[in-house]
Amino acid sequence: MHSDVSNPRNPPVVVAVNGSRIGPVLVDLAAAEAALYRAPLLIVHVWPGRYTGAYRGRGAVASRADAQRLLDLSASRARLVRADTPVTTELFDGGAATLLTETSRSARLLVLGHRDESCARPTWGSTTAYLAHHSACPLMIYRGAAPPQGPVVVAVSARPEGDATLGYAFARAALVDAPLVAMHMWMRPGAEDGIPPAVRPGAYVEEQAAAEKALAEALAGWTARFPDVAVERLVVNDSDMEYTVGRALRRGRLMVAGIGLSGSFAEILCSAREALAGVRRTSPIVLIPRMVVAADTVATSSRAMSAAVHRTPASRTSWARVAGRGVQQR
């Protein structure tokens, strides 16, 4: 079924299915997202039958009829899960990365998954990795079962272009009535160039204080706009960031981050997995492109705004403890 995905008034949540084992879970997740935002759901599949590019798979290619059958089954599942959500489908023909990037230009949210091989290849897969750097709309990446409770975690760059990321995170926390953990990383002198930092007495305390000030300034406008969202601040240096991100992904219900200038933070998220079990059991990740206008990312229904409630400190998770060594005093 062809659908119009260009309605600017209420753009759809788009989910891409490819016949993998996590396909049904992706459909359920995308249907829940569409219902949350009162948006239509568009289920797409890219049939590679006539694709001859560099990323063509080596295995047998399903027929076009099988591809359409996959879409029909996925749509039936979505309608069972969320009967009140409009569901349509779209069958594409060609390269998945290019076609999904184009689809993202008129979507509210694009939902993708990771590889099926969770232990041997801790990556998102070529299509998801490409969209992580090129999607025009927020990109949600599913990586396994997420805690039903827990905070929304946002990685804060403390730069003006990070406003869209913060806006999305605050609006999401208000929408689902969750606390927000704002996590900011500071770079030690010389770290970006790979130079071992020269440590002088008191330098760590000064750097941490500067990072905390930058984080507070970045949050000020959004905390005023969303006064009922309980916010906890967390600052870590670059050497502790990967460890802290891994723990945050396992404790929070959602991780929100900007795609960024270099994409280095997206790479940290891509490689994060459950270290002990060797499998992915982390919260979904939402990557926000820089070109998203902050005012658009925070558009929420009146229902979302009224759902936010004041929380007492006792009801909040202490992320200074959750993050572990990432916030130890030096």
In short:
The chain has helices spanning 23-36, 64-81, 96-104, 126-134, 163-176, 203-225, 238-251, 264-271, 294-297, 302-307, 319-322; strands at 13-16, 41-47, 87-93, 109-113, 139-142, 152-156, 180-186, 231-237, 254-258, 285-288. By secondary structure, the protein is α/β, with parallel strands linked by helices. Mean pLDDT is 77; it is low at 1-5, 116-122, 274-279 and 293-330.
What is the helical fraction, as a range of percent?
25-40%
Main sheet record? 10 strands, mixed
Oligomer: single chain
Q: Order of strands across the biggest sheet?
A: 3-2-1-4-5-10-9-6-7-8
The stretches of 5 or more residues where confidence is low (pLDDT under 50) are 1-5, 116-122, 274-279, 293-330
Overview of this structure, please?
The chain has 330 residues and is an alpha/beta fold. The protein is 37% helix and 17% strand. The protein is built from eleven helices and ten strands. It has a ten-stranded mixed beta sheet with strand order 3-2-1-4-5-10-9-6-7-8, sandwiched between helices. Helix 1 packs across helix 2, helix 3 runs parallel beside helix 4 and helix 5 packs across helix 6. The longest helix has 23 residues. The radius of gyration is 20 Å and the shape is elongated. The chain starts with 12 loop residues before the first strand and ends in an 8-residue tail after the last helix. The N terminus and C terminus are likely disordered.
